[in-house]
Specification:
The longest helix has 15 residues, at 93-107. It is globular and about 35 Å long. Strand 2 (47-54) and strand 3 (57-66) form a beta hairpin. Strands 1-2-3-4-5-7-6 form a 7-stranded mixed sheet. The two termini are 26 Å apart. The protein has helices at residues 14-18, 33-38, 93-107, 125-130, and strands at 4-8, 47-54, 57-66, 77-84, 112-117, 134-138, 144-149. By secondary structure, the chain is α+β, with helices and mostly antiparallel strands. The protein has one domain: Gcn5-related N-acetyltransferase (GNAT) (Aminopeptidase, 3-Layer(aba) Sandwich).
Length: 150
């Protein structure tokens, strides 16, 4: 495995983050409906956006949200979006990004983080379960809500 490190999302790396590729079948799972609905009320001050560099190349992106006052518990400390380039999947990029977000949540005083995903064979559920998330509920749209205790 190559060297992994985080870098804040910036004008220098946003194009590479936007051009991360997906494996066939993954495009249907990029953003759950719940996130699209809630995006209209996201406060830019609560967003935590990072790219993951693998050997100095953008290989992943993670967008977290930290808003202890959110009326929706699942959005108080959560992975809002995570994307790992198709060619970098299986190399620890997603776990590295998730661990970094979990560490940030812990430093901000949270005891768990959440994530929401669309269930399906090519979806991210198996990945989230592998790294420790457990199913804790379902959204009104039928998406799975997972939680990771810190």
């Amino acid at each position: 495995m190559g060297e992994l490190r985080l870098e804040e999302l910036s004008a220098r790396n946003i194009v590479a983050a936007n051009n991360l590729s997906l494996k066939p079948g993954q495009e249907a799972f990029v953003a759950p409906v719940s996130y699209s609905v809630a995006a209209s009320v996201i406060n830019p001050a609560t967003a935590w956006q990072r790219v993951v560099l693998l050997d100095d190349q953008v290989a992943g992106f993670i967008h977290g949200n930290f808003d202890p006052n959110s009326e929706h518990e699942e959005f108080r400390a959560c992975i809002w979006r995570i994307n790992v380039d198709a060619g970098a999947q299986g190399q620890g990029v997603g776990k590295f990004a998730s661990d970094a977000l979990a560490e940030e949540a812990r430093a901000r005083g949270f005891d768990h983080i959440n994530v929401i995903w669309e269930p399906g064979d090519d979806g991210p559920g198996a990945f989230f379960h592998r790294i420790g998330f457990v199913d804790v509920g379902e959204t009104q749209y039928g998406e799975t809500i997972g939680a990771l205790q810190l």
